[in-house]
Amino acid sequence: MLKNIQQLAGGVTAPKGFTAAGVCAGLKKAKKDLALIVSETVAAAAAVYTRNLVQAAPLKVTRENLNSGHARAIVVNSGNANACTGEQGYQDAREMAAVTARAVGCEPWQVVVASTGVIGVNLPMDKIKEGIKKAASNLTVQGSSEAAAAIMTTDTFLKEIAIQLPLGGTLVTIGGIAKGSGMIHPNMGTMLCFLTTDAAIEAHELERMLKAVVDRTFNMVTVDGDTSTNDMVVVLANGLADNEPFTIEEQALFQAALEHVCRQLARMIARDGEGATKLLTVLVQGAATEIDARQVALAVAGSNLVKSAIFGCDANWGRILCAAGYSGAAIDPERVAIYLESVAGCEQVAAAGQPLPFNEDKAKAILREEEVIIKVNLNQGNAEATAWGCDLTYDYVKINASYRS
Amino acid sequence: MLKNIQQLAGGVTAPKGFTAAGVCAGLKKAKKDLALIVSETVAAAAAVYTRNLVQAAPLKVTRENLNSGHARAIVVNSGNANACTGEQGYQDAREMAAVTARAVGCEPWQVVVASTGVIGVNLPMDKIKEGIKKAASNLTVQGSSEAAAAIMTTDTFLKEIAIQLPLGGTLVTIGGIAKGSGMIHPNMGTMLCFLTTDAAIEAHELERMLKAVVDRTFNMVTVDGDTSTNDMVVVLANGLADNEPFTIEEQALFQAALEHVCRQLARMIARDGEGATKLLTVLVQGAATEIDARQVALAVAGSNLVKSAIFGCDANWGRILCAAGYSGAAIDPERVAIYLESVAGCEQVAAAGQPLPFNEDKAKAILREEEVIIKVNLNQGNAEATAWGCDLTYDYVKINASYRS
């Protein structure tokens, strides 16, 4: 579907009219901890938030502000989540928006506020305020990587991407930065993603697309990827590409491009699981419904036993079937086929839910690669889904990794 | 409620008329791997099984056999789960019952069959058959510990208990052995528990009680404690205590005694999590319903972030509230109070969902103990529940354990 897509450098500052900065505000020791992303014109804006009943103060403020469907700036701090901080926390988040608005020259309700870090401690507002001013005076069109660095917590590498494609009679650019938790399941830390585009698109269209895209990307990074108190995915579209209004087909293309960007960032988050050596992709096919397919894919990708077997290069496929069995989907174990795949090849290890004689050496070679795909065919229908995770490499896993031998 | 209860040695062979043995059948290297428990008379029998859609062959056979409500013997092997093994696996499980029946002198349908170990590999039936014969010739009234050793997989200590109490005009004894998975969440390995009693009690009464007891004990050991392909809790009651039929009050007492036995075994399983240094008990009070209370307790006890904070003796209570928030229960975050407790004292760390100034040194001292209790009061009603888990001590956790500092 996406034929004319081109990868660019520059992340969130690749689209026209966006600047960014990342500075040390002093919340973390000698590390960047405050990011600012600004659009030179008012942008259509949409967001998807955590489903946790406990929601951090910045989420409340952002939700209120984005009721307008528009924004000019995004301010983010790491090192402190401003969650479970009561009325003071709410006032602090509002003040972050107000200080940012003054510093960049917009209205407080045009500011998206996000935080990540420790829960239950009030923000050091003096540092935050100084940091915002410093960031505002450092905004540049090369600032994406610094902003990406400033939102990191236990991440081990920057998560940044930008693409360009012809749409609506011109070239449209989409950029993004993200942070994952360094933890095994992202539900345990905050997942943040900020997307920018110069496409001209209505806020309500943007929101519809973002919801659909997040369900197929960030919500498919292991189990419960949506349950921290601070998770947030935000997109700003400032229209500076000056495209014609998208046709129905172009809307679909734009959504596919947005999904491409989010999928790449989601894969980076999965790959950056603490101590991970491998990206694990679980592709479930032949499901009766897409919901079934997602449940099975997430259960397999989220199973500590499957993940430790992948680490140990052990084709212990029984664990895959076991995870499918407890996923909640109405599978028929006696129809399930399982395949292991990587650049080293593909090997079927189970058919009709039963052992298949397979080449152990080839299976080991497949699992030894840096990107491993587990393919599960439920043979019950035509729906499919993909989930992403990583292997478990830690000491406690060693026992499980060699459990079969 | 249980005033006259007395702890005994002897596990499953403490009740009258039970013998047991554990032998090396050769499925594991130089370790006991086959257990036999036999009642000298036909016993009323009840069982609770895994809810995983993928169910191992021995479960199918046991389920069929226990339709009668009676049993004489339990045969268990470790080292191979006989799961995902197709028709051959089913025939093998039936043969285990038949061989056991011949060896101990009963009918094949009077035998409970259980297996634990690797999935997807057929049983080495020659070794199993020889092992059963060997075990049958080794049955003794001191055999409980050997049987408990033979069902272990990654367990680091024997799980065995027996109690006695006056009931129905005589002394009634209840014994049990169990194995947990050594994994963090028991859903990833098999949990097996075998209970014996010399009480005279009807099979359907026994089943009703066992279901209620398992929901409050084994199903409360971290999240998804019931989802391996082989999980099974079985109780045999042979009536040799010769008690009068229980009154309603005595039935309740017997159930409480059964719950006491299962709770102790559940705590042992939690305490034996791989690498665990602490038993973590989560007590949720003030819930609107018992189901809410259970969901919150399991979410908190199962949270890797909470567990690593407990390991690091870090009173990072925000993670506790966060877990309550994604538990699925309809909590009101702004009512939640949180307490940390151990033999070193009790300290309230949050009230109304917000930080409370607390003594960090005292909190650290509390968390440094071997048994730590997290008490969460939802302040929404009168229901409560308890869940058990352990801390996370592995390398990968170190990063999270000190996340707040």
Summary tags:
alpha+beta; 2 domains; nine-stranded mixed β-sheet; 15 strands; Ubiquitin-like (UB roll); 405 residues; homodimer; L-amino peptidase D-ALA esterase/amidase; six-stranded mixed β-sheet
Mean model confidence by pLDDT of chain A: 89
Form type of chain A: globular
Largest interface: A-B, 58 and 59 residues
Approximate helicity band of chain A: 25-40%
The CATH topology label of the largest domain in chain A is: L-amino peptidase D-ALA esterase/amidase
Low-confidence stretches of chain A: 183-188, 395-405
In N-to-C order, the SSE pattern of chain A is EEEHEHEHHEEEHEHEHHHEEEHEEH
- Number of β-strand runs of chain A: 15
Using the CA coordinates, give the radius of gyration of chain A.
22 Å
Write the layout of secondary structure elements.
The structure is a homodimer of 405-residue chains.
Chain A (H helix, E strand, L loop, with lengths): L5 E3 L9 E6 L10 E16 L7 H10 L3 E11 L5 H19 L6 E8 L6 H12 L7 H7 L8 E9 L2 E10 L12 E6 L5 H14 L15 E6 L10 H24 L7 E9 L2 H13 L1 H8 L6 H8 L11 E6 L2 E7 L2 E2 L4 H8 L3 E7 L5 E8 L4 H7 L4
Parallel strand pairs in A: 4-5, 8-9, 10-14
Antiparallel strand pairs in A: 1-6, 2-3, 3-4, 3-9, 6-7, 7-8, 10-15, 11-12, 11-14, 12-13
